[in-house]
Each structure stands twice: as structure tokens, then as C-alpha cells.
Q: What sequence folds into this?
């Protein structure tokens, strides 16, 4: 059921995993090593569909850890594309020039 009331929110953010291939000394995710978790595509789809009922959702932001280490990243991207939403991915980049 589509709501008649719309919220002014236009983006939704998900931390889809805390798994990361880098071991940056300044990152708080180091405390989570060995406790890797992944957000399910079904949960993401449900949250997007619920948000679309009450908002003018345009963008979905994915972050982590390293989002591309999520074993179901392709399925997640497909879900977001099927909803005709913009995808923004925040990922870890190592630029050490040693």
C-alpha cells in the first residue's frame, strides 16, 4: 500500500559487511576481525521497498568493510538496479607508495 505521506529522505545507506581485506591501524573494524558478518540481499530488498512507500528514494549507498567482499554483491546490485535507483559504493583503497 502506497502512503500518501512522503518523507523528504532521498537516500538509504547500508553497511553490507564488516569484512575487509586491509588492516589499517586507525580503523575500528580491526576489533571485529574473525567476526565477519554479511547483510542479506532479502533484508536490503525489504528495506528499500519499505523506504519507497514513504520517501522519494533515489540513491542507495553501500559500504562496509569492503562491499566487494560480500559473497552476494552481484545479487544486491541487481536488486538495487531493478528498483531504478542510483548506486553509490564506498570501498577501501590502499594508496601506500612505499
A:
Amino acid at each position: 500500500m502506497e502512503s500518501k505521506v512522503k518523507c523528504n529522505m532521498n537516500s538509504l545507506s547500508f553497511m553490507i559487511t564488516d569484512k575487509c581485506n586491509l588492516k589499517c591501524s586507525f580503523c575500528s573494524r580491526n576489533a571485529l576481525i574473525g567476526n565477519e558478518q554479511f547483510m542479506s540481499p532479502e533484508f536490503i530488498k525489504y528495506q528499500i521497498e519499505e523506504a519507497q512507500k514513504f520517501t522519494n528514494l533515489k540513491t542507495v549507498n553501500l559500504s562496509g568493510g569492503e562491499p566487494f567482499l560480500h559473497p552476494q554483491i552481484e545479487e544486491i546490485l541487481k536488486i538495487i538496479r531493478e528498483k531504478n535507483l542510483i548506486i553509490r559504493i564506498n570501498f577501501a583503497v590502499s594508496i601506500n607508495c612505499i
About this structure: The chain has two helices and three strands. Helices lie at 41-54, 73-82.
